[in-house]
């Protein structure tokens, strides 16, 4: 049978009128849908992924004909589409309307986001559309609804867009749990994942299907008798090509027959969705921007490259200029405008800008009115931006897959090569760009590993499921484990999460009488009252927004000079912890201008415009910094270690490396070079693990603790993506000379034991991590952006909770969740552990009498980056000394 | 928290209305002239108070607060102990006190004159918790009460939970503190879950018209910080 014959005439005609032919993968997906199989579609941008994902639903719905709309015959929701971005869902809904209208199909398409008015939400529950487009959070809310089973009982297809980006976060965990519930309510449904190219497609294939046999899965609903719905999913008689129901849930071919017993997968193989891959089109035309001038040894501003970037913008139709951080975005935008004699329409777009401002940029972009947009990761995801013909990536690429996805933003016709430039901002970034170019040419990917489902997210989900209806512990456990990230969840952890939801799950059982969910005599768990359900609804989601505060432009009061009133417009948001370190009078770059911080007023940062020509004083803030991927880091080390590779680098780089070899040494790919040298009245130690800023910060914290204990009086350290520099008043080199094992001990893996624990006790990063877990798990209530603090003592500081819990119940499930996050998140402990293992016995100490070329790069961060310290007493001693100075003056 | 060493290292001497006051790392204050130890805002059973409303905070706050309290009491071994109000987070607090905590409290009280000053959170205190209950009291020239008053009268109070925030070269820290102008002192809250009010808040202004010095409780010692060095949140 020709695949094209799967397409009804009305569709074939539609393609013909538009002068298109259905693409092979689009027909593949149609065929898979007919067979009732779940599919992962991996395709580059511009391959018609979205249409491929929806085509089977459109065809099925077209064949079914219009629902009659009477209560008795009303049609349930057919297709659910989940996108990571609200804007993407709206965008897709609009695009989908075109074929539906042009073919005159009787299909109702609606979106449901945080912006959907409540009357429309209620109506959607009452009369579901055929296709609903929404986000993971909205799905969680829908599933916690008492009507959820009824609402989803006819569901046939789930389309998960940008799956590669969703699965790498806690949102992906939440979504996986939602998917598990959907599959339990509607076992007939199949899932389609749309993804960019990833390193391990099998991870995503597992994510899409239940990790146990759904037929042997004891459904809470079935047992409890309020869910004969699943049997009601009567197939349309016309839809005869649908496979028998028992085969509907896709799994690996050997697993299509359910095996009874506790391990239905047999063979040890996990079930996976089918895979359809669309090969990338033409090789991208990508190169490094080379300058005649020498690049600086540190810094991320790429100021020297701005004229060249400006020329590129001028020579192309529409350019996307990607940068890694908001600071870089602000800076690049300013610099380009300084050069903008032609008055080109160059815009700025990053996640902290006010939504209305972002929308204006997006609309102008789609309308083709912009010449260039300077943007951060907020534009990484697949909204259609019209005719981009050049992508410029300023700064280090950080990851091979990331750079490929960004390049994919240009030229939405996949058969034409995308044109892109990588712009290194400093000499190290030349190495990184070289490594990334190699990776792109080999099409090597470095997307992250599959996640193990977070326990705090599970806690939130358990409460949601209790809100949906009574459940049996065993049944929910099996359902949760059918979600790929939770396939390995132990019964003990599951019980601990249930206990947490009920009473906090503390060893000291003090709160039994206040339990939020309770087990009845019938062994079913229920929410205590409607208030608990309401609490859940207000706290759903895994994005802890409350760490942002709004930035409002203030107006000077005419009557009282020097007084600033909060009367201006909102410019956007900054991290609360960044605002916390600002003092009135500090200037910083934001929303394309230099602003003066005036103070915090009612939970908003009040700012004024700084006079023209003012240099921003606060150099950096952390938003959107990606650590260098392990994969690229290994490649950078390999290039560095192999002088034959140096030929492929720009001359300025080769020269610099030769100098390093003359003055010190160039380390081998698995070695750790440690250099020590005196400078001023301090002693410095630098090392280059290439493991990314986060892991280096943690390393720096732990090294300074150990140096402290070794009485070498460390004074501070700085870290960047490549290495760290520690400075002390004690002579580290002399100690290492006297005691040959000193450096091995200093860098030994046991620093991840007690030293790490001690530091975690007071680490502000760890406290921030804990806070996020506490909010997600529902321990404390979420504070909404813009919501005013309602007096002291109404909320509770999670730092205080952290201190108490850590001391009295260090193994509590929330602390375990926070530690799991710390392993990969802000502290990147796991990567540090891998590095310490790698360099064991491979530390090369080079005592020098002055700084080496390699070390200069990280030394330059001193004064540029913040000095990291969690030592409160140091800060206080400094402030106290200031008082004494004043007294003595 | 760092283990407390000898008193000498953990206390910080100030002059309060002409007499010596020792500020302790726990947040307690000792008036040697009266052999009295003062603490403020213990907020016992705040955790269970939140749990009643569905926020299941770790139920160890009372225990933790008692550890600090007994540490200070046993080190200084004072004749008189005064708790300056809000000793319990709510009126039901004393009832919810666990057996173990009740026993610890009795142990700490034994052989001392124990005075509970009432606060806005604990206007009524039952006899079962031992000690005597007063609305305010005097120790020599000093008035001890929960809510600080304005005016010239030398006093020691709690209620406001002062914390001081210091930012030095991009590094910030926020710690509990004693605020004093030499006549009046507002003590930090001792309760493990007691939050803090920034010393720059307008609420402190009328109490210290001539300004104040903040004594911030660090990890190893107490630091005297000038008002001008403190930042808003």
What's the level 1 CATH class of the largest domain in chain A? Alpha Beta
Average pLDDT taken over every residue of chain A: 82
Oligomer: heterodimer
CATH homologous superfamily annotation of the largest domain in chain A: P-loop containing nucleotide triphosphate hydrolases
Low-confidence stretches of chain A: 214-267, 619-624, 784-794
* Share of β-strand residues of chain A: 5-15%
- The number of helical segments of chain B is 5
Query: Which secondary-structure class do the elements of chain A indicate?
Result: alpha/beta
Low-confidence stretches of chain B: 1-6
Radius of gyration of chain A: 29 Å
Structural domains of chain A: how many = 5
| Percentage of residues assigned to helices of chain A | 40-55%
The CATH topology label of the largest domain in chain A is Rossmann fold
Principal-axis shape of chain A:
globular
CATH architecture of the largest domain in chain A: 3-Layer(aba) Sandwich
CATH topology of chain B: Purple Acid Phosphatase, chain A, domain 2
Helix- and strand-based class of chain B? alpha/beta
Which radius of gyration of chain B do the C-alpha atoms yield? 17 Å
Q: Termini of chain A, distance in Å?
A: 94 Å
- Secondary structure tally: strands of chain A: 28
């Amino acid at each position: 049978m020709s695949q094209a014959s799967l397409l009804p005439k009305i569709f074939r005609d539609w393609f013909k009128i538009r002068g298109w032919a259905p693409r092979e993968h689009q027909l593949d997906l149609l065929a898979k849908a007919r067979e009732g199989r779940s599919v992962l579609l991996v395709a580059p941008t511009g391959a018609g992924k979205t249409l491929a994902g929806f085509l089977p639903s459109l065809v099925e719905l077209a064949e079914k004909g219009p629902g009659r709309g009477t209560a008795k015959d009303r049609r349930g929701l057919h297709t659910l589409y989940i996108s990571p971005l609200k804007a993407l869902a709206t965008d897709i809904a609009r695009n989908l309307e075109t074929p539906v209208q042009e073919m005159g199909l009787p299909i109702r398409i609606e979106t449901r986001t945080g912006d959907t008015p409540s009357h429309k939400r209620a109506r959607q529950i009452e009369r579901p559309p055929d296709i609903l487009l929404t986000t993971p959070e909205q799905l969680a809310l829908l599933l916690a609804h008492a009507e959820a089973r009824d609402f989803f009982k006819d569901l046939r297809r789930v389309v998960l867009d940008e799956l590669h980006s969703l699965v790498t976060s806690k949102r992906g965990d939440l979504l996986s749990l939602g998917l598990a519930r959907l599959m339990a309510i509607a076992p007939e449904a199949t899932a389609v994942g749309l993804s960019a190219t990833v390193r391990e497609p099998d991870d995503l294939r597992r994510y899409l299907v239940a990790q146990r046999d759904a037929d042997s899965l004891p459904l809470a609903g079935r047992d409890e008798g309020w869910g004969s719905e699943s049997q009601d999913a009567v197939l349309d008689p016309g839809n005869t090509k649908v496979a028998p129901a028992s085969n509907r849930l896709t799994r690996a071919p050997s697993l299509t027959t359910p095996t009874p017993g506790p391990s239905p997968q047999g063979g040890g193989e996990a079930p996976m969705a089918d895979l359809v891959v669309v090969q990338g089109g033409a090789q991208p035309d990508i190169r490094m921007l080379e300058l005649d001038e020498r690049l600086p040894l540190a810094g991320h501003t790429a100021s020297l490259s701005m004229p060249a970037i400006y020329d590129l913008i001028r020579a192309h139709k529409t350019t996307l200029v990607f940068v890694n951080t908001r600071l870089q975005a602000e800076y690049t935008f300013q610099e380009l405008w300084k050069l903008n004699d032609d008055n080109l329409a160059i815009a700025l777009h990053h996640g902290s800008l006010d939504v209305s401002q972002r929308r204006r940029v997006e609309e102008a972009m789609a309308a083709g009115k912009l010449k260039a947009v300077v943007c951060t990761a907020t534009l990484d995801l697949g909204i259609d931006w019209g005719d981009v013909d050049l992508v410029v990536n300023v700064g280090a690429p950080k990851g091979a897959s990331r750079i490929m996805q960004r390049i994919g933003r240009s030229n939405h016709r996949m058969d034409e090569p995308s044109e892109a430039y990588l712009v290194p901002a400093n000499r190290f970034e030349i190495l990184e760009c070289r490594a990334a170019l190699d990776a792109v040419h080999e099409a090597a990917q470095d997307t992250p590993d599959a996640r193990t489902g977070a326990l705090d997210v599970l806690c939130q989900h358990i409460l949601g499921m209790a809100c949906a209806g009574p459940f049996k512990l065993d049944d929910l456990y099996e359902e949760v484990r059918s979600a790929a990230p939770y396939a390995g969840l132990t019964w003990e952890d599951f019980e601990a999460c249930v206990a947490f939801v009920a009473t906090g799950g503390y060893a000291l059982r003090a709160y039994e009488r206040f339990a939020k969910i309770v087990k009845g005599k019938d062994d079913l768990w229920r929410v205590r009252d409607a208030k608990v359900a309401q609490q859940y609804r207000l706290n759903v989601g895994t994005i802890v927004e409350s760490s942002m505060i709004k930035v409002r432009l203030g107006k000077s009061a005419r009557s009282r000079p020097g007084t600033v009133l909060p009367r201006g417009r909102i410019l956007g948001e900054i991290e609360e912890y960044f605002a916390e370190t600002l003092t009135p009078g500090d200037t910083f770059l934001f929303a394309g201008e230099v602003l003066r911080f005036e103070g915090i007023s009612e939970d908003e940062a009040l700012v004024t415009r700084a006079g023209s020509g003012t240099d921003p004083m606060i150099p950096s803030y952390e938003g959107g910094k990606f650590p260098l991927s392990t994969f690229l880091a290994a490649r950078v080390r390999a290039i560095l270690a192999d002088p034959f590779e140096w030929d492929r680098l720009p001359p300025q780089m080769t020269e610099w490396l030769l100098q390093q070899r003359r003055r010190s040494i160039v380390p081998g790919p698995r070695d750790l070079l440690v250099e020590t040298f005196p400078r001023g009245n301090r002693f410095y130690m630098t090392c280059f693990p290439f493991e990314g800023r986060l892991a280096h910060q943690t390393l720096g914290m732990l090294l300074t603790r150990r140096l402290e204990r070794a009485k070498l009086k460390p004074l501070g350290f700085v870290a960047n993506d490549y290495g760290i520099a520690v400075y002390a008043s004690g002579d580290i080199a002399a100690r290492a000379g006297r005691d040959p094992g000193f450096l091995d001990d200093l860098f030994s893996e046991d620093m991840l034991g007690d030293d790490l624990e001690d530091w975690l006790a007071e680490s502000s990063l760890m406290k921030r991590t804990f806070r996020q877990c506490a909010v997600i798990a529902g321990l404390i209530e979420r504070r909404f952006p813009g919501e005013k603090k309602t007096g002291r003592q109404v909320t509770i500081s999670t730092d205080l909770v952290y201190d108490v819990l850590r001391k009295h119940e260090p193994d509590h499930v929330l602390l375990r969740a926070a530690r799991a996050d710390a392993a990969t998140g802000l502290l990147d402990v796991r990567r540090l552990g891998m590095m310490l293992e790698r360099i064991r016995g491979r530390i090369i100490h080079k005592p020098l009498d002055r700084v080496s070329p390699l070390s200069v790069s990280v030394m330059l961060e001193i004064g540029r980056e913040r000095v990291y310290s969690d030592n409160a007493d140091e800060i206080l001693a400094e402030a106290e000394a200031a008082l004494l100075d004043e007294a003595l003056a | 928290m760092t283990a407390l060493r000898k008193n000498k290292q953990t206390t910080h001497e100030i002059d309060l209305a002409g007499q010596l006051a020792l500020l302790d790392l726990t947040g307690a204050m000792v008036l040697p002239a009266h052999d009295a130890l003062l603490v403020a805002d213990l907020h016992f059973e705040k955790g269970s108070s939140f749990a009643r409303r569905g926020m299941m905070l770790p139920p160890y706050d009372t225990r933790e607060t008692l550890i600090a309290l007994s540490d200070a009491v046993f080190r200084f071994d004072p004749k008189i102990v005064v708790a300056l109000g809000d000793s319990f987070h709510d009126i039901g607090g004393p009832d919810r006190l666990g057996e173990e905590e009740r026993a610890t409290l009795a142990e700490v009280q034994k052989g001392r004159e124990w005075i509970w000053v009432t606060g806005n959170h604990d206007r009524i205190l039952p006899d079962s918790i031992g000690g005597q209950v007063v609305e305010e009291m005097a120790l020599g020239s000093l008035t001890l009460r929960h809510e600080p008053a304005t005016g010239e009268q030398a006093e020691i109070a709690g209620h406001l939970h002062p914390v001081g925030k210091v930012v030095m070269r991009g590094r910030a820290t926020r710690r509990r503190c004693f605020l004093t102008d030499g006549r009046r002192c507002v003590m930090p809250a001792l309760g493990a879950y007691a939050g803090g009010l920034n010393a720059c808040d307008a609420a402190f202004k009328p109490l210290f018209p001539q300004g104040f010095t903040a004594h911030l409780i660090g990890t190893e010692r107490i630091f005297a910080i000038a008002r001008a060095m403190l930042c808003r949140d």
